[in-house]
Write a structure and sequence with these properties.
CATH class of the largest domain: Alpha Beta
Oligomer: single chain
Number of helices: 9
Helix content: 25-40%
Strand content: 15-25%
Order of helices and strands: EHEHEEEHEEHEHEEHEHEHEH
């Protein structure tokens, strides 16, 4: 029996074409809540970015943030984190401070952009969000580094960081996290928190960074608009986000 459903945000729960959550997905989440099934976010986004979305109306039951690097309860209070440390942290900070490539550092409370290029501007134009201010690192724990460059360039810089993992978001944005991190690890910690087992959860995603959680979940669902890597690791491929994909899959498995 499914007791919790995990949702990626961008391209899964949040549609850029309507700049919001599709009505059918809102209906699906409400039906899940009526059946006392937990609804949990699993995203690469930072807590501050998630708070800007209309998710507060959905009364989400928890958050797996920054690609599994931070887990927080329904009130965004963190209870688990996997920051960079040792030589990996030193390498991350060196890349940030040298400013040879635009990167964003993410702590639990804020994020730092070192410089920007057309790639950074294009990314934020696409996401229809204001460009972050350039700022200096203030010494907090760092959970993720985002590189705004081609995947090939990101791999070059990723090779400068020991024990890390690269998660390509698109052709010019890559998230870099500690090698032991990822959405699957974050979900494992969330399951301990909610006293649930992997075979009692369902997960929805569309990106390469969703592949491990789709394979880990009892039922992994890739969106029809998803990346081939996500579809490869899913148990089921549903319709596109704008074609009621979430609602369709939940009905297909008789969850709602």
């Amino acid at each position: 029996m499914i007791k919790a459903v995990f949702f990626d945000i961008d391209g899964t729960l949040f549609s850029y074409s309507i700049q919001g959550i599709p009505p059918s997905a809102i209906k699906a989440l409400k039906l899940l809540k009526e059946k006392n099934i937990l609804c949990i976010i699993a995203t690469g986004r930072h807590p501050k970015e998630v708070r800007l979305l209309p998710l507060h109306q959905m009364n989400m039951d928890g958050y797996v943030l920054l690609n599994g690097q931070i887990c927080a309860d329904q009130n965004f209070v963190p209870f688990f984190g996997t920051p960079f440390s040792g030589p990996a942290l030193k390498a991350v900070l060196q890349i940030f401070q040298e400013k040879r490539i635009p990167v964003m550092l993410y702590s639990s409370e804020r994020f730092y952009l070192n410089t920007f290029t057309d790639e950074v501007q294009e990314t934020y134009n696409y996401m229809q969000r204001p460009l972050p201010k350039i700022d200096g690192y203030q010494g907090e724990d760092i959970y993720q580094l985002t590189v705004y460059a081609s995947n090939k360039q990101a791999e070059f810089w990723g090779n400068q960081i020991p024990d890390c993992k690269l998660l390509h978001w698109n052709s010019f944005v890559t998230d870099i996290i500690p090698s032991e991190g990822g959405k699957m690890k974050g979900i494992r910690k969330m399951l301990e928190h909610i006293h649930c087992s992997p075979d009692e959860i369902m997960a929805f995603g569309d990106g390469q960074n969703d592949a491990d959680m789709l394979e880990f979940a009892g039922i992994g669902v890739a969106m029809g608009n998803g990346h081939p890597e996500a579809k490869k690791h899913a148990d089921f491929i549903t319709k596109d986000i704008d074609d009621d994909g979430i609602f369709y899959a939940l009905k297909h498995f008789n969850i709602i």
